[in-house]
């Protein structure tokens, strides 16, 4: 598309996403990888929460976005049931956002092990201790559970079998940038069999 220039230029949406994320790392004061993840429950009721993007893997038609969580959490159960999710990353400092809709698979192998091992020890023990999204008696009970896991697993805990990654493979992506007088720029990328198609959208 002739007018897709500057920050929107290129034939690979994952290259654009990486470029924007790198810019946000230097300009966003906190959590430049934060994204609002949307899922639905068994009744079709939508659910949204913030998670942290940890990897943008691959290129072209084979790229994906990876985050990590407890598989037994509400979002984990909802994703497992539907195999689908959406997210948006918004950077106020850049006045830009990326929206993604796609299918989801587990990242449950060596990449998940490596990321888990890179976390602080207390975070690794916390993953063992927290029954994420389930009722909790008190914060003191959570702290005690984490301390107990430290006794059980020591200083080099393995990754819990109920904790790992989810890989979102987009079927659609949208890149948005703020424009003067609310005349924003929006480009939607739709995945086809052999290429991405790109459409400029009205703001």
Output the CATH topology: Pnp Oxidase, Chain A
CATH superfamily: Electron Transport, Fmn-binding Protein, Chain A
Shape estimate: elongated
**CA(first)-CA(last) distance:** 17 Å
Helices and strands, in order, run as HEEEEHEEHHHEEE
Provide the structure class.
Answer: alpha+beta
Pathway: Cofactor metabolism; pyridoxal 5'-phosphate salvage; pyridoxal 5'-phosphate from pyridoxamine 5'-phosphate: step 1/1; Cofactor metabolism; pyridoxal 5'-phosphate salvage; pyridoxal 5'-phosphate from pyridoxine 5'-phosphate: step 1/1
GO molecular function, one term: pyridoxamine phosphate oxidase activity
EC number: 1.4.3.5
Function: Catalyzes the oxidation of either pyridoxine 5'-phosphate (PNP) or pyridoxamine 5'-phosphate (PMP) into pyridoxal 5'-phosphate (PLP).
Question: What features would you describe in this structure?
Answer:
With 203 residues, the protein is α+β, with helices and mostly antiparallel strands. The chain has a single domain (6-119, 162-201), classed as Electron Transport, Fmn-binding Protein, Chain A (Pnp Oxidase, Chain A, Roll). Helices cover 28% and strands 35% of the residues. It contains five helices and nine strands. It has helices spanning 13-27, 74-82, 110-118, 121-129, 139-153; strands at 34-40, 46-52, 55-57, 64-70, 84-91, 96-107, 163-177, 185-191, 196-201. Strands 1, 2, 3, 4, 5, 6, 7, 8 and 9 form a nine-stranded antiparallel beta sheet that branches. α4 crosses α5. It is elongated. The mean pLDDT is 96. FMN binds at residues 49-54, 68-69, 75, 97, 132-133, 176, 186. One of its GO terms (biological process) is pyridoxine biosynthetic process. It is an enzyme of class 1 (oxidoreductase). Homodimer. Residues 29-147 form the Pyridoxamine 5'-phosphate oxidase N-terminal domain.
